[in-house]
Specification:
Its EC number is 3.1.-.-. InterPro entries: Metallo-B-lactamas, RibonucZ/Hydroxyglut_hydro, RMMBL, RNase_J_2, RNase_J_b_CASP. It comes from Congregibacter brevis. This is Ribonuclease J. The chain has a 7-stranded mixed sheet. The chain has a 5-stranded mixed sheet with strand order 1-2-5-6-7. α5 packs across α11 (353-363) and α9 packs parallel to α10. The chain is built from 12 helices and 23 strands. It has 434 residues and is an alpha/beta fold. The protein folds into 2 domains: 4-184 and 349-430, 4-Layer Sandwich (Metallo-beta-lactamase, Chain A); 189-336, 3-Layer(aba) Sandwich (Rossmann fold).
Length: 434
């Protein structure tokens, strides 16, 4: 859920504040869960501001639900700001005010902190790492990232930002660990675009591509695929339409004549239809689930059509995704996923081992603090950091306090941590510990 707090000189800076969903629920619609912000809520007068690194739900989703507990300015890039406004309004949540839009490359002073926004590539656009400085020292907070020189939307990855930060003598790098056990290098969105083009070109009936709604580059690629295969593209799912509209409004996408109203899809010849759909994790009520059940009001699939899963299965969702894909197969609808595809149809948004090594070589931190992953991922990240120049690496758990400068250290269980859960009436209450 990615609620990070940096403290200095009696002030705090919050970086990201996301949501997750309850696991092992008997409810058809799992409840939304947020971090319990008790630690900072008790110190809200010391909170200087909230910084959001990118538009994924596990980084911004709790802001409309929690912002009134500490109403301070929110700083983020234009696309993330637009997504935040739309999601808050769509869910009846509180839209933060003010939202201060920050252009990648610029610097903001927030209380005692100086924050420079470093453009970095990820699976949603306008993602930024943060170079945070104060009188005690400086650090790099990578956020979620990968190295992609041809990301399809937005500028390609540039190491210059990170070598410059390293030249300033960083006290610490707080770094994404999600793919730290994966050898090699993640693949580019341009390779996925080519893989999807070949996969769709080989299909004869309708084609449905399921992906994460926030992956604007994937939408851009599929518009291009539609153009090159003589198909028209439709977006099925409210979150997809919200993300596409937000990207249009900030100039990340241009309107395409290949993109049509979803109500027209059913009137086209099958070989002219390409659909992007939500629900790649088997979510109840999502477009893909309704297509599998034959209950979507705008389109019905038939034998000979194809579903392409252009996403990874999030751990814990394996059974629901397999049940969903089995329903398609039982109806004579072909299924292509990452394992069965002849060409790459998905790319991770997180760095593999070679990319992590490069980041540490560029940034040259005294201390590495791996985050964002399970313990095995963080320990693997720490090993890579030490092998590539970091003098020290510290791993911890939720609630631990890391001293980053002037002397590194770690205190366990300083902050009370837990989860809040939103009920059907929108109220938040504490989730009992397991």
């Amino acid at each position: 859920m990615n609620l990070n707090l940096y403290g200095h000189d009696g002030a705090w800076l919050m970086v990201d504040c996301g949501i997750t969903f309850e696991r092992d629920s008997t409810r058809i619609r799992p409840r939304v869960q947020t971090p319990d912000p008790q630690f900072i809520a008790e110190r809200k007068d010391a909170l200087a501001g909230i910084v959001l690194t990118h538009a994924h739900e596990d980084h911004i989703g709790a802001i409309p639900l929690l912002w009134e507990r500490f109403p301070v300015p929110v700083y983020t890039t234009p696309f993330t700001a637009e997504v935040l406004r739309r999601k808050a309004a769509g869910r009846g949540g509180k839209i933060p005010s003010p939202i201060i839009e920050c252009i990648p490359g610029e610097e903001q002073t927030i209380g005692p902190f100086s924050v420079r926004w470093l453009p970095i590539t990820h699976s949603t656009p306008d993602t930024c790492a943060l170079h945070i400085r104060c009188t005690a020292g400086s650090l790099l907070h990578t956020a979620d990232w990968k190295i992609d020189e041809t990301p399809q939307v937005g500028p390609g990855f540039s190491a210059d930002w990170f070598t410059a930060a390293g030249a300033s003598e960083l006290d610490a790098v707080v770094c994404d660990s999600t793919n730290a056990i994966v050898p090699g290098h993640s693949i580019s969105e341009s390779i996925v675009r080519d893989g999807l083009l070949k996969a769709v070109a080989a299909c004869e009936g309708r084609v449905v591509v399921a992906c994460f709604a926030s992956n604007i580059a994937r939408i851009h690629s599929l518009i291009d695929v539609a153009l090159n295969t003589g198909r028209y593209l439709g977006l099925l799912g409210r979150s997809l339409q919200t993300m596409h509209s937000a990207a249009l409004s900030v100039g990340l996408l241009e309107r395409s004549k290949r993109l049509i109203e979803t109500g027209h899809l059913g009137y086209l010849p099958r070989e002219e239809v390409l659909i992007v759909a939500t629900g790649s994790q088997g979510e109840h009520g999502a477009a893909l689930q309704r297509l599998a059940a034959g209950s979507h009001h705008e389109l019905e699939l038939e034998p000979g059509d194809t579903v392409i899963l252009s996403s990874r299965v999030i751990p814990g969702n394996e059974e629901s995704v397999e049940r969903l894909l089995k329903r398609f197969r039982d109806q004579g609808i072909s299924v292509i996923d990452g394992d069965s595809a002849l060409q790459p149809v998905h790319a991770s948004g997180h760095p593999c081992q070679e990319e992590l090594a490069s980041m540490y070589q560029w940034s040259r931190p005294r201390l590495a603090v791996p985050v964002h992953g399970e313990q095995r991922h963080m320990k693997a990240n720490a090993k890579i950091a030490r092998e590539n120049g970091a003098q020290m690496a510290l791993t911890g758990e939720n609630g631990d306090l890391f001293y980053l400068a002037p002397e590194p250290g770690l205190r366990r269980k300083v902050a009370v941590v837990g989860r809040l859960e939103q009920d059907e009436d929108g109220r938040l209450s504490a989730v009992p510990p397991p």
